[in-house]
Amino acid sequence: MTHQIPHAAEFPVRSRRQFLEAGAAIGLGASLLSHASWAADSSPVKGGTLVANVLPEPAGLVAGINISQPAVVISASIFDGLVRYDKDFKPQPQLAESWSESKDGKTITFKLRRGVKWHDGHPFTSADVQYSLLEVVKKVHPRGSSTFGRVTAVETPDEHTVVLRLDGPSVVLWSALFGTETQIVPKHLYAGTNVMANPWNTKPVGTGAFVFKEWVRGSHVVLERNPNYWDSGKPLLDRVVFKFIPDAGARAAALESGELHYAVTNPVPESDVERLRRNPALVVDTKGWEAPAPMFFIDFNMQRPQFQDVRIRRAFAHALDRKALADNIWYGLAKPAEGPVPSYQKQFFKPGLPQYAFDPAQAEKLFDEAGLKRGADGVRLRINHMVSPYGPVYQRAAEYTRQALGKVGVELTLVNFDLPTWIRKMYTDYDFDTAQGWYSAYPDPQIGVERRYWSQNIRKGSVSSNAARYSSTEMDRIIQGIHDEADVNKRRELIGQMQQLAQVDVPSINLLELNFYAIYSKRLQGLREGPLRFYSTLADAWLAPPAA
Amino acid sequence: MYVLKRLFQMIPVALVIIVMNFFLLKAAPGDMADVIAGEAGAATPEFMAALRGQFGIDQPLPVQFGHYLRKIASLNLGWSFRANESVMHLIWGRLPATALLVVSALLVALVIGTSLGAWAALTRRRWVEPVVSLFTTIGFATPLFWVGLMLIVLFSVKLGWLPTGGLSDITIDLQGPAHWLDAARHLVLPGACLSLYYLAVYARLMRASVLEVDRLDFVRTATAKGLSRWRVVLRHIVPNAMLSIVTMTGLQFGALLAGSITIETVFAWPGLGQLALYAVTSRDVNLLLGILLFSSFFVMLVNLLTDLLYSRLDPRIGELGGRA
What we know:
The complex is a heterodimer.
Chain A: H1 16-25, H2 29-41, E1 49-53, H3 69-78, E2 83-85, E3 91-93, E4 96-101, E5 107-112, H4 126-140, H5 144-147, E6 151-158, E7 161-166, H6 187-190, E8 210-216, E9 220-225, E10 239-243, H7 248-256, E11 262-263, H8 270-277, E12 282-285, E13 294-300, H9 310-319, H10 322-329, E14 334-336, H11 360-369, E15 381-386, H12 392-406, E16 410-415, H13 419-427, E17 434-440, H14 445-448, H15 473-484, H16 488-505, E18 508-514, E19 518-521, E20 524-525, E21 542-543
Parallel strand pairs in A: 1-10, 1-11, 15-16, 15-17
Antiparallel strand pairs in A: 2-3, 4-5, 5-7, 6-7, 8-9, 9-10, 11-19, 12-19, 13-17, 13-18, 14-18, 20-21
Helix pairs in contact in A: 9-11, 15-16
Chain B: H1 2-27, H2 32-40, H3 45-55, H4 61-73, E1 79-80, E2 85-86, H5 87-122, H6 128-141, H7 144-158, H8 176-214, H9 217-224, H10 229-266, H11 272-281, H12 285-313, H13 315-320
Antiparallel strand pairs in B: 1-2
Helix pairs in contact in B: 1-12, 2-3, 5-6, 5-8, 5-10, 5-12, 6-8, 7-8, 7-10, 8-10, 9-10, 10-11, 10-12, 11-12
C-alpha cells in the first residue's frame, strides 16, 4: 500500500561509467550522450517553477529533527550545512569556509562564513552551530549521539568560530557533517523549547537557497527563491513545489504528461522504469547514491536453534541466485553484493571476500551434513520469512526466495506486515525466523554497516540494528578497534577484517547492492554531482525551455 | 421533538463507537514511535522512549483512554503529533475537498443514474435495456483505482486535456473565474471516476423500482383517468420509485466516504480519505480516532436527514415511525 518509506536516509549507487555502460547495454547510451552534450551547449536560464514529488508526506521539514527521506529531500534546499561533499566525498565549504584539525585529532576548528542570515533576517552565528550540535544533533538525531559520541564540548570563541573538543580522534565525524545529517537550526527559534514539538519544524527557517513559503497538508510544499542567499546569483529557480502524489501509477502519468519535472527516491516500481527510460523527455538517473548506499540482505534469527549451525546459514546462501535476483526481480537496478560494504565504496570495500556461489547441490550437501535431512514429504525445514514492507519489489524478492529455498527442501511461509508492525516484530519482539530488509551502508561503515554485527546493538527497540542478534567476541573486538583507531590505514585494515568475518559467519546473507533511481525531465539541469545528488540543495538547478 | 429524540439516541451509539475505535486501534502492533524510527533508518531505545513519553503513549491504556474521554467531552479531538497540528484543524482543512468530491460525484450519479434507470425501465425500444445493463454491470464490477488510472492515461497522458491530479494548479496563482475553472478541470476525472460506481448502483435500483411501481394499482388508476404517459411517469411513478433511491443514498453515504479514499489516493486529492490513510500508515492514533469519530457522526446525521426526507416523500412512514 505505501510505497517506499525507505529508512531515512537510505539510498544506492553506481559510478558514472557503470551507469553509461548499463545504459548502452540496453540501447540507451546514445540518448544519454546526446542529453549530456545538449546540456553542455545551453547556458543556464533564470526563473521558472520546478514541480517535484516526494513520497510520502513527511512529518516535518527539518530533517535533523524529523529525519525521513522526503524531509531530507526538501530540507536540503532550505538549510545549508557546515560542509557539502564533492564527487570524492571530500568536504567543501558551505556554511563553514575553512576548518583545521589538531594533530591528536582532539580539536576541530571551523571558521564560519560571514554575512549569512537566517530567512527571518537574524544573523547566523557560531551560537547556532553550538546549539544545533549539542541540543539537536546529539540529543534528537537517531544517529547523532553515536557519530558525535566523542564530542565533549563545543566552544564559540567568537561569532564566526566554532571549536569542537573531542575525547579522542573520530574519523567517522567527517562522513556526517553534511547539511541534512548534521543540520544547523536557528537557535533563536529553538532554544528553551521542546525541540521535537517546536512549531518551526513545520514552517522551517533556514539559511539555504530557498525560503519556505507554505505547506498545504496532503497536497504540497512551496519554496521560493531566497533573495539574500550568500551564494550570490543563486538560486536560479524562482520556486520549487514539492507535491505529494501517493499513487505510483499517477506519479508515472504525471512524469509522462510533463506536469512533474523531478521525482526522486524510486518514484515508480522497478517494473515501470524500462518504459519510462524509453520516453525521450525523461531521464532515469541512478547516480548520486554512493553515500547512502542501500544494501539488501537476509537476516537469520540467531536465537533459533536451527540457525546456530553455520553450515545451515551457508546452505541458505548457496541456495540463492543473486544474479537472477538482480536481473529479474530488480530489472537490473541492483548488483550482487560481495559483502556488507558496497563495492563502489573503494576506500573501505575489501576485494576477495569469501563468496557463496549459487549451488543448490552444495546447499543440499551442507544441510545433510548439519543433520537437517529431507523428510518423507521432501521438506527438511519449515520456517517463516518476514517480507520487507518497503514496496512491491521486496514482495517479489521474498517470493523468489521462497521458490529457491523450496528447491532445496526448505519451506518458507511468507509473512507480510505494514511498516509499524514490521518494525515492532523485527526490532522489539524479534519475532521471525528469517527476514529480508535493506540498510544504508552510509559513507563510513561505522555508521551503516557495523550496526548489523555489533553485539552492543542488540537492544530491544533499537531500529535498523542487529536484528539477527549476532554476537561474537571476535567481531566486537574488531568493531571497538574501528572506533578507537585514528590512523586511517590501520582503521581500513580493521574494516576489512569486519567484512571478512561477516562473510565467514554469515549471520546475515548479503544479497544485493541496490541502485536507487530518480526520474526527471530532460529540461532539468544543474543538479549537484556527488554521492548525495538528490539530498543536495537545488541552488544550481534550472529548467531549460520546453523543446519546440 | 422527533429530531431531538433521534439526536439523543445517537449518544450511546457514539459512545460505543468511541470505545471500539480506541481499543481496536490501540490493539494494532507498532506505534508512532516505531514509524518515526523506521523512517529515520535508525533509533536507540532511549530515543524511542523519549518519543513515546512525548506522545503520551507510554501510559497504561486505561489512563490514555481516560485522557481521551476527557478531551472528547470538552469537544477537543486532540493533537496530531505526526502533523504537529490540532486534529480538528486538520479535519476542517480537508473537509471541503472531500465534500466537493463526494457531493459532486453523488449529484452526477443521482441525476444520470436515475434517468438511465427510468429510461431502461420505461422505454419500448428493445436495445436500451441491454445497453444500460451492460454499462451498469461494467461500472459496478470495475475497480475504481483501475478506472482512475485509465482515465489519467487517456485524458492526461495521451490527450493532454486534463491534469493528472491535485485540487488546483499550484504552480501559478489564479484568481476569480480562472481559479474556479481550474478547480473544475481538476474535479472532472476524480468526480467522474467516483460517480461511476454509484451511477451504476442507482441505475439498476431505479430500473427495478420503476418496473415495480409501474405495475401498482394507483398507476393503473391514473392511466385510466386519462392522464398522459408523461404525466403519469413524472407525477406518480418517479416520486414513488425515488423512495428506494433515498434510502440507498443515505445508507451509502458512509461507503461513499470510503470510496473516496481510493479516488483521493489515485488523484492526489487532498481530502479526508487521504488524511485517514496517512493516519493509519503513520499510526497517528489521535488523528485517526478524530477522523473516525467525525465521519461516524456525519453518517449518523445523514441517516437522520434521510429519515426526515423519507417521511416527506411518503407521509405514511413518518406517522408509523413514531412522531407521537
